[in-house]
Specification:
CATH superfamily of the largest domain: NADH Oxidase
Distance between the termini: 35 Å
CATH topology of the largest domain: NADH Oxidase
Bound molecules: flavin mononucleotide
Shape: globular
CATH architecture of the largest domain: 3-Layer(aba) Sandwich
Mean pLDDT: 97
Strand content: 15-25%
Number of strands: 7
Low-confidence stretches: none
Length: 196
């Protein structure tokens, strides 16, 4: 699949098949992240790959999911949890401040590379960073930026044009709908024009 189709077809996945992802594949994802653009080419990012089932479960306990879905319906149910995580760190001895743009570019490389291999992902910013630092033995010069949960998809969310709300929702068939702002609402031609 070409990059344009991958971008259009990618959706955040929060229900996963319990099929392991080979470590070599996870390392390919990190390799794609390593090659992302980096401000001043400082490359302050480091990555913890977690695929050992007990450790995956422990990391999962410190993650929060789909805040717009009530009754915790966004959190992967038992038997649909992610099978791996990559935790993205900013090494503050390399870059004392900033680096979040680098992190975004690197994470998108991971997510799109995973999509190409049929692997679903959920980028996670809502984390118990204190607990994760302790669990993963992260030293003080590294900051946890975000993490990504990974696994083969066990759901097929759909994108739709946003009307009155940006909140994703589950329909009667338990399919996740993700509203996106219209192209016409987000672009400007040659100069800014007030749209909303
Ligand atoms: C920086 C960032 C942090 C996110 N954090 C979480 C999170 O903590 N938990 C979660 O369930 N989803 C999280 N998401 C996923 C978003 O909810 C998701 O991208 C959004 O609903 C749009 O859906 P889409 O990715 O299918 O387009 C995060 C996404 C981004 C970019």
């Amino acid at each position: 699949m070409g990059i344009a189709d991958l971008i259009r077809k990618r959706r955040t996945i929060r229900r996963f098949k319990q099929k392991p992802i080979p470590l070599s594949v996870l390392l390919d994802l990190v390799d794609a992240a390593r090659l992302a653009p980096s401000g001043a080419n400082l490359q302050p990012l480091e990555f913890i790959v977690i695929d050992e089932p007990t450790q995956v479960q422990a990391v999962f306990a410190h993650t929060r999911w789909a805040a717009y879905l009530t009754q915790n319906r966004g959190r992967p149910a038992k038997g649909q949890e992610p099978v791996a995580f990559i935790v993205l760190l900013i090494n503050r001895s390399i870059r004392p401040q900033g680096g979040e743009h680098d992190a975004g570019a690197a994470m998108q490389n991971i997510i799109l590379s995973a999509s190409e291999l049929g692997i679903g992902s959920c980028w996670l910013g809502s984390l118990d960073r204190v607990a994760l630092r302790d669990l993963l033995q992260i030293t003080s010069h590294c900051e946890i930026d975000t993490a990504v949960a990974l696994g083969y998809p066990d759901e097929q969310p759909v994108v739709e044009q946003m009307n009155d709300s940006i909140k994703y929702y589950l329909d009667a068939d338990d399919v996740l709908h993700v509203p996106k702002r219209k192209l016409d609402d987000v672009w400007h031609h040659n100069h800014y024009t007030q749209k909303i």
